[in-house]
């Protein structure tokens, strides 16, 4: 096990081979978000990005939950506090900054990000899971948008990610009505990629991440870029981007190794070059 620095015990990390693991660690608050967590992501994601030996990031939670989202008890305390507060513009700037430091950072990370949900993912906790490239869930996990139940509209990218997974009308229903989705229903809707038994969830999630990490990392990066580009640009521009990525990946040592391994009928060994 290697060290993955976060600078806080609200978000803990380690490196297991070529998989980095970040885990929400406020089990007494169902892993509700905190300022320390946002700073922890900023610290850790820089290390994940820069360490060539890390090929996959898995984000999970301690104590049987993934993340309950915003700390509602903290919201109540803030409303009761008569002390100085941020102006509306200051609050918007602060929230925009911390959202970009997590959701946008996941999307721009040139490596696969897997959210492994051992239990509940609610509100912004679900939003952060949606920002990952892949979602895995334990069979007992529950997913809920939750925002409308506290009179809020949503943050950390739910309104952008959710319609792309389930369609606009279903996303509106899930945001407005905030039903509790079990893991099987979330999988049926396309929100969750795979559901694993609770007893083996940690091992199954890590096995999935290791299988991803065994793939050619340069190709994985370009595949992620290509797919995400399709959300933002016309087809002609997407084809140009795909062509550039294809030429670059086919010039790599990993491509040559994979081709040779295919002919020799053996598993390839990728070096990331």
Radius of gyration: 20 Å
N→C terminal distance: 24 Å
Series of secondary-structure elements, N-terminal to C-terminal: EEEHEHHEEHEEHHEHEHHHH
Number of strands: 10
What name does the CATH topology of the largest domain carry?
2-enoyl-CoA Hydratase, Chain A, domain 1
Oligomer: single chain
SS summary, helix count:
11
Task: List the domain count as a whole number.
Answer: 2
Low-confidence segments: none
Shape: globular
CATH class assignment of the largest domain: Alpha Beta
CATH architecture descriptor text of the largest domain: Alpha-Beta Complex
Instruction: Assign the structural class, choosing from mainly alpha, mainly beta, alpha/beta, alpha+beta, or little secondary structure.
Output: alpha/beta
Overall pLDDT confidence: 91
Name given to the CATH homologous superfamily of the largest domain: 2-enoyl-CoA Hydratase, Chain A, domain 1
Q: Which band does the percent of strand residues land in?
A: 5-15%
Order of strands, widest sheet: 1-2-3-4-5-7-10
Query: Largest beta sheet, briefly?
Result: 7 strands, mixed
Helix share, percent: 40-55%
């Amino acid at each position: 096990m290697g060290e993955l620095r976060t600078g806080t015990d609200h978000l803990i990390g380690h490196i297991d081979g070529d998989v980095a693991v970040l885990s929400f660690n406020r089990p007494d608050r169902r892993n509700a978000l905190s300022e320390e967590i946002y700073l922890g992501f900023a610290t850790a994601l820089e290390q994940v990005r820069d360490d060539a030996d890390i090929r996959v990031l898995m984000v999970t939670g301690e104590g049987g939950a993934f993340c309950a989202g915003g700390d509602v008890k903290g919201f109540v305390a803030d409303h009761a506090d008569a002390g100085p507060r941020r102006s509306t513009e200051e609050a918007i700037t602060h929230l925009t900054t911390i959202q970009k430091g997590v959701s946008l950072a996941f999307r721009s990370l040139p490596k696969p990000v897997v959210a492994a949900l051992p239990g509940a993912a609610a509100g912004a906790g679900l939003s952060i899971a949606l920002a990952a490239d892949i979602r895995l869930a334990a069979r007992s996990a529950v997913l809920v948008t939750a925002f409308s139940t506290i009179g809020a509209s949503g943050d950390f990218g739910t309104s952008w990610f959710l319609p792309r997974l389930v369609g606009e009308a279903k996303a509106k229903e899930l945001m407005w009505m905030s039903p509790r989705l079990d893991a099987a229903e979330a999988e049926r809707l396309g929100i969750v990629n795979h559901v694993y038994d609770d007893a083996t969830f940690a091992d199954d999630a890590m096995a999935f991440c290791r299988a991803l990490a065994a793939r050619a990392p340069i190709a994985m990066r370009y595949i992620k870029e290509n797919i995400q580009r399709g959300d933002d640009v016309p087809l002609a521009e997407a084809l140009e981007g795909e062509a550039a990525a294809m030429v670059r990946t086919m010039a790599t040592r990993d491509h040559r190794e994979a081709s040779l391994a295919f002919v020799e009928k053996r598993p390839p060994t990728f070096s990331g070059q």
